[in-house]
Amino acid sequence: MAQDAGDAVLPASRITAERHLSLIRKIIPEDAAVRVGETRPQPRYPERSVHLLSFTMVGLILPFSRFFHEVLDFYEIHALHLAPNAMMTLAIFAHLCKMFVGVRPTMRLFQSFLVPQLLQGAVGGGCYFQPRPGVAGQYIDSDLRKKWEDWKKDWFYTALPDRPRLRLPTGPPERSAAWLAVSELGEEYDAVRDRLKGLGS
After folding, report:
1. d(CA 130, CA 112)
2. Three-state SS for 82?
3. Which residues pair with 48 in a beta bridge?
4. Does the structure show a pLDDT above 80 at 167?
5. Contact 71, 196 (CB under 8 A)
6. End-to-end CA distance of the chain
7. I need a surface site. Which of 29, 134, 157, 194 has the fewest CB within 10 A?
């Protein structure tokens, strides 16, 4: 019997009763419909998409930013390919750009400092980000959580835009040439680089 796509990505959810949703409802906007998970995530279901508690905890809350969609499209990955610390890395970068540097987070800037890596064979959570070689001292150090216990079991449904990269992936992320590509930052980014260096020291 063929394995269902949902089984390959996520195990049965532990968020299966209304009482399990209390924390989620405190974080997610009131107008976001939230429903309990089940034994097997539905790959596609009208007005119902899989979301993870760990992603919510690190800041991935509806509506998703333009930058988040740019990252998924550029690296040709699904949201569920990302590990919780990858989501945290994206959230830190976006917050850093907007609140401390005063610029909009962009792929060009992101890929100058960070590069995706693969966890071999993993479908859900098979991709994370690490500093690009040679950027020591140019970007902030992040102390991320060492381990997320059973994070794949804490999923629920919410309404997400019907975009391909927000659906359940059917296989692990695949490395492409875009993963290692880097855009040179011109002189217009000098002030941004200086500000980031100042924050990292």
Report:
1. 11
2. strand
3. 45
4. yes
5. no
6. 56
7. 134
Tell me the per-residue pLDDT of 146-158, one tens digit each, with 9 for 90 and over: 889 999 999 998 8
Domain span at 143: 5-200
Helix spans in 2-106 (H): 5-9, 22-27, 53-57, 66-75, 84-95
Query: In the structure encoding, which two tokens stand for residue 84, read together?
Result: 């919780």
Copy the structure tokens of residue 20.
């399990």
Structure confidence at residue 101 (pLDDT): 87
Residue with tokens 């962009």: 106
Q: Of 29, 21, 25, 49, nearest to 160 (Cα)? A: 49
Residue 200 near residue 139, CB atoms below 8 Å? yes
> For residue 74, what are its two tokens?
């550029």
CB atoms under 10 Å from CB of 136, counted, come to 10
Question: Closest by alpha carbon to 72, among 86, 57, 54?
Answer: 86
Q: Is the pLDDT of residue 2 over 50?
A: no
Which token pair is 60? 């991935």
CA distance linking residue 103 with residue 91, whole number of Å: 14
CA distance 144 to 57: 13
Q: Which residues contact 45 (CB under 8 A, 6 or more apart)?
A: 157
Domain count along the chain: 1
